[in-house]
Amino acid sequence: MDGTRMKKEEDGEKTKTDEEVVQLRREIGLLPAVSFIIGTVVGSGIFIAPKGVLVNSGSVGLSLLVWALCGVLSLCGALCYAELGTSFTKSGGHYTYLLETLGPLPAFLRLWVEFLFIRPAVASYVSLAFGRYVVEPFFAPCPAPMPLIKLVSLLGVTFVVAVNCWSVTMAARTQVTLTFIKMFALVLIIIPGVIALAKGKTENFQNGFEVDSLTLDMLPLAFYNGLYAYGGWFYLNFVTEEVINPNRTIPLAISFSMVTVTIVYVLVNVAYYTMMTPAELLLSEAVAVTFANRALQGLSSVIPILVALSCLGALNGGFFGSPRMLFVGAREGHWPPIFSMIHVRRKTPLPAVLLLYPLVVLMLTTGEIYQLINFVSFARWFFIALATMGMLIHRYRFPLHPRPFKVPLVIAVTFTVVCFFIVGLSLYSDPWNTGKSCVLTLTGVPVYYMTVYRFRLPRRLRQIFNYCSKQLQILLEVAQQEVQTY
């Protein structure tokens, strides 16, 4: 009896230890993974980007073709990232893949631009869309005051940060719930459009492929607008270490999510053009609201709420995924060690999540979002192209490396070439913003040498840095992972 009791007590102690150990846990199954991708991809883009795609493509038919091609291109990229995510089991997405295939400097530069302007700019843009759709219905038909929109946007960002600091499970459940809500909003747009189309309302599709107004320098901008709406298919790769059975879950979730989003996006745009002329769509500041006023008079007041929740879901997905890149970068020694620590009770990467918050707030209050969003796409797609090129190089150099999922070579090569082509063409289309993006990226080079080779800094500076890190660690109640999760 005594021996049995002692064994039970030992087992209880072991269970307790397992629960208390500081680590990021594998809690993301297939449904949360699908919700995570769809919920991050479907944000404000589908409600804002149709205008940008149409004005740069020049016709209804070409704009629908751009939407479809952007979906196919994003699916090809997502399949490449499915191979990368199953070949390299660390979290961190772009950063990890560049580190493993092309080396530390490209990886650090991707980390640098992500937190210097890509993630704050995208988060600010999406949160402003959230604030606008929440506030404007109360002031219609008058314009809503911008300070109030910014205040509501700030409250949305604060809510998302609080959820992601509090619990990984809560953040995942929030994402699942918001994904179902946003898919309901899109279906609500698609159904009346398809019904009207079936009844013969096709006048806006007549002469759909007029190419008189199309110019070569505008085409990459049309693709940038479309690809912005599809952006987010790579976020599941940021949290690989928290995915249950990643070798199966990542390829399945990516394939199902991107096929679903592509079909839905094309159908939503067909619905828009069924109920609105191209001129009316270009004049609309909120395409979904204009559509609802035409096709869903009884539900027109509900659409802004659904769009706002859709933006909130995209914001939650971004704050869930991006800090993991910073977390892994700090773990690899490319960022201060405090950002590779986890809250001892909540088991969330608290410092990495919190770092994003003041950057987004700063960008929201200064109002420089729209200038930044124009050249965010260049840096994002340039590094994605580098990551898939690195995958091809790694395949050639290490043919025996285990790859549980392997994308066909033609897809990987085509995607990489098209990405570099779009990036190169943007240098011609918009040299000013692209040039600024290059300069901002290159500012990370001296920071890289200061960060990685910080042991060469004066001893006094290192002592101050270490003291501040220790005090911050005590204040935030965080510690390093106690077990390896990759």
| Outline | globular
Low-confidence stretches: 5-16
**Alpha carbon gap, first and last residue:** 40 Å
CATH topology: Amino acid/polyamine transporter I
Radius of gyration: 23 Å
The percentage helix is over 70%
Mean pLDDT: 82
Query: Which CATH top level class fits?
Result: Mainly Alpha
The tally of beta strands, per DSSP, is 2
SS-derived structural category: mainly alpha
| Largest sheet properties | 2 strands, antiparallel
CATH architecture type: Up-down Bundle
Your description of this structure?
The protein contains 19 helices and 2 strands. It has helices at residues 2-20, 30-41, 45-57, 60-87, 94-101, 104-139, 146-166, 168-198, 219-230, 246-275, 278-283, 287-295, 302-331, 350-366, 369-397, 409-429, 431-442, 444-452, 459-476, and strands at residues 341-343, 478-480. A two-stranded antiparallel ribbon has the order 1-2.
